[in-house]
Amino acid sequence: RKRTFFEMFENEKPRWVAGKLRELGIGADESGIEALLELVENETGALEAACAQLAAAFPPGTVLTEEDIEESVARNRREDAFSLFDRMAAAGLEEALEALETVLDDRRGDAVQIVSALAWSFRRLARLHSMIEDGSDFESACYKLQIRSKAVQRQCSQAMRRFSRKDCERALILASDIDSRSRTMGSAYERVLLQALVYGIMVKKGALDLAWRADG
Description:
Shape: globular
Mean pLDDT: 88
Helix content: 55-70%
Number of strands: 2
Structural class: mainly alpha
Radius of gyration: 18 Å
Strand order of the largest sheet: 1-2
Low-confidence stretches: 1-6
Strand content: under 5%
């Protein structure tokens, strides 16, 4: 069976990563481990692969910093639902749609999983907006939301400039609509539904009316 971090306490995650790196002959400081956990999908297989890539890229005995891990993960990262969000926040529609195609072609998630990951990202972004609107500064709000990696903070800052809190709220409503349709319409429609989601969020800021129905 595959064990995921949803079955682990928060304080177990850094220890698991530190132990895996130690088995591979390298180490990482506290900020480096936090960066790895934020930049790589918190699923055992993905983290094991990331640790193995780090061990192959650095000499035995190296203690990796946050910067080391950010650079290495950026070079080796495959597209997934979370990198798709990054493209939507920082790139153009064409690049985001290309990233979506890569995710689907690599089978890095089905429609339900991709929509769920995007919804999680926009929900976190909406909370970040709300906390800042309520008087928190950006760094304090990031800390409260467990966003400690400087790379992820930069990604969130870019996303905030592109999507307002209202945009995020509309994106979440659209994501819920797409999720419902993908469950009822089946896998044959997942690509066009996900393309509509990406287009609807990036171009229409979530205000996309899907008037067509599965039955007609």
